[in-house]
Write the structure tokens for this entry.
Amino acid sequence: MSLRVAHVNVAKGYRGGERQTELLMTGLAGRIEQVLVARRGQPLAERVRGLPVEVRLVGGHAPGVAAALGGVDIVHVHEGRSVYAAYLRRCLGGPPYIVTRRVDNPIRRHRLAYRAYRGAARIVAVAPQVGDVVRDFDPGLEVDVIHSSSSGFSVDAERSAAIRRAFRAEIVVGNVAALDNAQKAQEHIIEVARRMQGTHPHVRFVLVGGGRDEAMLKEAARGLDNLSFAGFVDNVGDYLAAFDIFVLSSRREGIGSVLLDAMEQRLPIVATRVGGVPEIVLDGVNGVLVDPERPDQLHHAIVRLVASPELRRQLGEEGPRIASRFTTDVMCGKYLDLYYSIAAAGARADKMRMTRG
């Protein structure tokens, strides 16, 4: 059965959800026909230009997105705002749609939201905890869980070694995330760095990423000589390979897929116990979990790992084993099965209508 799927992601910028959209489209290239409906002027559209994908650029408003969803068999919505465009197109006789929820923040409760989510052919959550958020919004909704995947970042050993030398530290504690303090809470990493500046001068903290809170966070880090901002980089794998410890201080997460990338580099993890993070960071197995909004716990966990090379080694060695269950191939296979099941259900419904006619 031939299949043409439109992926919809009109988010601004390029974060974890956009990376997962790109990974899925890359993994499905050549297996099905694909269309990307993306916001004009944003990175995602440019990043898939080399794939056999038709790119349709839109302004981001629901009517414009809905108008771009013609000529496909299934619509796959990858971020929350476009569910309304997919619902609108469906009401006008358009294709069935899937919604993937990637975040654990509550869905706003209003009539259109209930209609849009109830109208979806399937709803997917990237972790069981995200599925719980959907069911809290509407207990009648059924939710499939398809975990996000690791990115399979390549590593250039020479570039990574050069990055490591530039840090001039015995131990490097790294974070890779958008500089969005409301979600990622890098202010707590900065607080820990300030506490450790005098007590652990051999430790350096590195924040990789860019975002709207960059100026605010740099101001919060003023005077620290043990913390660096690397900015947005394309060679994330080289930075991960240069770290000794990976820290995620988020207030909320879907699953925190960058943790899988850190595990592939055998990094011990310190992460907050939010969203689907406990699905992949097992406390005492491949990392240490702390409560959100507790920089004191974050500090204690990092100091503990800094003090114990053996514990860092033990936790790091478990990472690749856990990450191996969350590959792009696994994710793509599950979505492909879902697409074909929806297409088959639609074909059966069409056949029944023709029989009755």
About this structure: The first strand starts at residue 4 and ends at 9. The chain has a mean pLDDT of 95. The CA atoms of residues 209 and 234 lie 10 Å apart.
